[in-house]
């Protein structure tokens, strides 16, 4: 996998996530495919794979979103296709929390709460710690457990979390998650 493109998957594709990841790609380096993100994801696996191959700088940030669709939605199907592509290495994922009423969940390596603390408990959309140990509810997280990703970091809603992850403040929570994934993936 030495020549494979290093990818970080983000399970959110709304306007806040796009703005945040565009900003952080400029700050941390890498290529953000925000122009292919949507809520829900409309791009095909093939479109995203071709964009990853063309990316000039790594990591490549891929935003996937199912917009609350239960089961394997468009974003999760793309995630599975990326994981099975020998020319792509998913070095990590940011699992973004959804409303707790959602029945889909995933395991994660650890979570980062709205105060930037690394915790073993899940978080809600606001980044507030939940009593659930090692699980996060989300709408594009179901497939994360089906593939081998070295690190999955759970966080609240990107660019929000009671204003603490606002892009005007440098999106410190999302930034911290990306930096940890990049460090463990050998990119910094």
TrEMBL record:
Q: Which domain of life is it from?
A: Bacteria
Mention any Pfam family matching this sequence.
SpoVAE
**Protein name as catalogued:** Stage V sporulation protein AE
- Organism this protein belongs to: Aquibacillus koreensis
């Amino acid at each position: 996998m030495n020549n494979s493109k290093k990818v970080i998957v983000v399970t959110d594709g709304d306007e806040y996530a796009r703005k945040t990841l565009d900003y952080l790609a400029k700050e941390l380096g890498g290529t953000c495919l925000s122009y292919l993100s949507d809520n829900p994801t409309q791009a095909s696996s093939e479109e995203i794979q071709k964009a990853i191959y063309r990316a000039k700088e790594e990591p490549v940030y891929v935003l996937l979103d199912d917009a609350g669709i239960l089961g394997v939605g468009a974003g999760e199907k793309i995630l599975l296709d990326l994981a099975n592509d020998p020319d792509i290495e998913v070095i990590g994922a940011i699992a973004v929390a959804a409303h707790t009423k959602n029945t889909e969940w995933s395991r994660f390596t650890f979570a980062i709460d709205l105060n930037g603390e690394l915790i073993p408990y899940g978080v809600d959309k606001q980044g507030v710690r939940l009593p659930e140990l090692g699980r996060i509810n989300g709408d594009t997280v179901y497939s994360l457990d089906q593939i081998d990703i070295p690190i999955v970091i759970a966080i609240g809603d990107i660019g929000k979390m009671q204003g603490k992850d606002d892009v005007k403040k440098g999106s410190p929570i999302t930034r911290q998650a990306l930096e940890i994934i990049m460090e463990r993936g050998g990119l910094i």
